[in-house]
Write a structure and sequence with these properties.
By secondary structure, this protein is of the alpha/beta class. It folds into three domains: about 170 residues, Ribonuclease Z/Hydroxyacylglutathione hydrolase-like (Metallo-beta-lactamase, Chain A); about 120 residues, 3-Layer(aba) Sandwich (Rossmann fold), CATH 3.40.50.10890; about 180 residues, RNA polymerase sigma factor, region 2, helix turn helix motif (Rna Polymerase Sigma Factor, Chain: A, Orthogonal Bundle), CATH 1.10.1740.10. It has a six-stranded mixed β-sheet with strand order 1-2-3-4-5-6. The chain is globular, with a radius of gyration of 27 Å. Bound molecules: zinc ion (ZN).
Length: about 500
């Protein structure tokens, strides 16, 4: 695999190239023109639009290799393709091919369609180096349209009260996104000088906006002011006596955002991928190795690792109901399809699937990644149970090695922190279970702690089988949500 180092920027030592280094370097890829990504390097690989924006922000001469999107190009012996990153105008991902393998570096990126950035593209890669600014589960952003509606409503309300609405957003990218959004709402934006300058560059590239004015102190009435966040403490804003100030940022999903930014409102619009899209991106790129950068990189990396088979098996073995839900989400419908094929009847297939998941749950400590995947093991269990079911043997007639989840978890004490977090998770599960409606809790406990099949639960409670299935599905779904919250809560 291509060697990767990190020191205030990504460095590929075998290729002698830096990716978005903070400090000036002889040879670097610059993903986009945000100020934390540009420096006076000697020689750069860059997209055309980023090159143009960069020249507006950074004086000096440098050798530029300006690459078109999507076209593999040889630069100093490297085979490089730039792909749009969807973050801001011109933002690019760096795709490197060697004889042996491939590497994709995202830079800052987002998957949601933006109005002022090229639509993102991707390629499968062996190594994925990605930014994870919002790498924690609570950072799931609402749909853009909804946020825009809220921003427009905020501006209208302020104007009706005779106040000046002020929207704070970064002058490159975010501000143009807001500008486009206001266009359809018939609001008249007035741009802070730095926003104005960047917007003019966008226009030179053929991006069209609504009508807008450049900031003039005496003409703000009836307009919507768009300023960079730093302007919030400036004289320009201070001198407005009647104003409503809103911050436009992905961080607005945090409950205390308005205090943190000292504003009247905060709206979660971001030019970065949110948590759900980060996860989705890993699935799209299908990498063998993921390296994470920025924001909640360590947390996100941990979440990714939790998705691997050995970790999922370990979580199952420790009695983590959330892990069971995860396994079910991934392979439930596949397992059901296999079971139906063997037993030929959906009611019976549901029981077979239930028993197979139960077997994997109970024997998860025996999982050995060297011998095959969790999926393969689960499907083998489904097939065996389905055949047993056809031969008329019940689940309890099979001699199965049963492991007590609690004993397994405390047995391997090599990593105390892992043990502590496991026991906390178990406590969290108990708490999550206790917050379920009693009938859902009862069904889940009978299945996973009592080892009963859905048919047996139905019989023993004298409740129709369909009702039991619904309760379990609803209960597991709720457990998953509760446990996701627990994991995400700060300390
Ligand atoms: Zn950026």
């Amino acid at each position: 695999m291509i060697r990767v180092q990190y020191e205030r920027g990504v460095f590929l030592p075998e290729k002698n190239i830096w990716l978005d280094p903070w400090d000036p370097k002889p040879f670097a890829f610059v993903s986009h023109a945000h100020s934390d990504h540009i420096a006076p390097h000697g020689e750069i690989i860059v997209s055309e639009r980023t090159s143009r924006l960069m020249r507006a922000r950074l004086a000096g001469e440098r050798t530029e290799h300006v690459l078109d999107f999507g076209i593999p190009t040889n630069v100093d012996g490297l085979r490089v393709t730039l792909l749009p990153a969807g973050h801001i105008f011109g933002s690019a991902q760096f795709f490197l091919e060697t004889e042996a393998d491939t590497l994709l570096y995202t830079g800052d990126f987002k998957l949601r369609p933006g109005r002022s950035a090229e639509a993102p593209q991707w390629k499968r890669a062996d190594t994925l180096i990605m930014e994870t600014t919002y790498g924690l589960p609570p950072y799931r952003l609402p749909p853009t349209d909804l946020v825009v509606q809220q921003i427009v409503a905020f501006c209208r309300e302020a104007l009706e009260e005779g106040a000046v609405p002020v929207l704070l957003g970064y002058s490159l990218g975010k501000a143009q996104e807001i500008l486009c959004s206001l266009a359809e709402a018939n609001l008249r934006p007035m741009l802070h000088g730095s926003v104005y300058r960047m917007t003019r560059i966008y226009e030179q590239f053929g991006q069209s906006f609504c009508e807008y004015d450049r900031y003039e102190p005496d003409a703000v009435e009836g307009k919507v002011l768009i300023c960079p966040p730093s302007a919030n403490r400036s004289r320009m804003i201070q001198r407005l006596t009647n104003k409503r100030v809103a911050m436009i940022s992905g961080w607005a999903v945090e409950p205390n955002a308005i205090y943190r930014y000292q504003v009247d409102a905060a709206f979660p619009l971001s030019d970065h991928a949110d948590y759900a899209d980060l996860m989705r991106y890993v699935e799209l790129v299908q990498p063998e190795r993921v390296l994470t950068l920025h924001g909640f990189a360590a947390e996100f990396a941990r979440d990714l690792r939790e998705l691997s088979d050995p970790d999922l098996a370990a979580a199952l073995a420790s009695g983590d109901v959330g892990a069971l839900g995860e396994l079910y989400d991934r392979y439930g419908s596949l397992a059901f399809a296999v079971a139906v094929r063997v037993v030929g009847d959906s009611g019976r297939a549901e029981d077979v699937v239930q028993e197979a998941f139960l077997k994997v749950w109970r024997s998860a400590a025996r999982f050995d990644a060297q011998r095959g995947s969790l999926r393969g093991w689960l499907l083998a269990c489904v097939r065996n149970r389905a055949i047993d079911s056809l031969r008329g043997r019940g689940a309890h007639e099979q001699a199965e090695l049963e492991l007590q989840p609690e004993l397994v978890a405390t047995g391997s004490g090599s990593d105390p922190w892992r043990e502590v977090s496991r026991s906390l998770e178990r406590a969290a599960i108990q708490e999550a279970l206790s917050s379920l409606p009693p009938e859902q809790r009862q069904a889940i406990e009978l299945a996973y702690y009592g080892g009963l099949t859905q048919v047996e639960i139905s019989r023993s409670l004298d409740v129709p089988l369909g009702t039991i299935k619904t309760r379990m599905r609803a209960g597991l779904h709720r457990l998953r949500l509760l446990l996701a919250d627990t994991r995400a809560a700060p300390n």
